[in-house]
Design goal:
By secondary structure, the chain is an all-alpha fold. It has one domain. Helices cover 87% and strands 0% of the residues. The radius of gyration is 41 Å and the shape is rod-shaped.
Length: 126
């Protein structure tokens, strides 16, 4: 079998067909390389498109979260004076020597302060 291919190759070299074969082989290689480059470019375009879509989704999510945080900040700013008042009442209840024995009033002031600070309840415990 090998001798058969050797004879064909020798025959092509003798008649000058080797040059045509080399040009054909170089053309095939060039086509394959161009095809690979085109496929890579299409892949890059697709990846950039997917990245842009993901970026837009992330920006929408950030925008939504920022709105939520602004809403929470507004609530916190509105509750700030009540939290300070509840803390002052707690301190007064703890510092007043006449109320030192009145543990119930201290507990109420502490609960009121916690409700404003942690939970955000606006009910009046007093």
């Amino acid at each position: 079998m090998l001798t058969f291919f050797r004879r064909i190759r020798k025959g092509l070299l003798d008649i000058g067909a080797a040059r045509k074969y080399l040009l054909y082989a170089i053309g095939e290689i060039a086509l394959v390389v161009i095809g690979i480059l085109i496929a890579l470019q299409i892949n890059n375009w697709n990846q950039e498109r997917l990245n842009r879509l993901e970026e837009q989704q992330l920006l929408r999510l950030i925008y939504t979260e920022m709105g939520d945080y602004l809403w929470l900040q507004d609530i916190g700013l509105k509750r700030q004076p009540d939290i300070v008042k509840a803390g002052e009442r707690l301190l007064l209840a703890m510092k007043n020597p006449t109320n030192r024995t009145n543990q119930e009033q201290i507990d109420r002031a502490f609960t009121h302060h916690l409700c404003y600070t942690l939970v955000g309840l606006s009910r009046n415990i007093y």
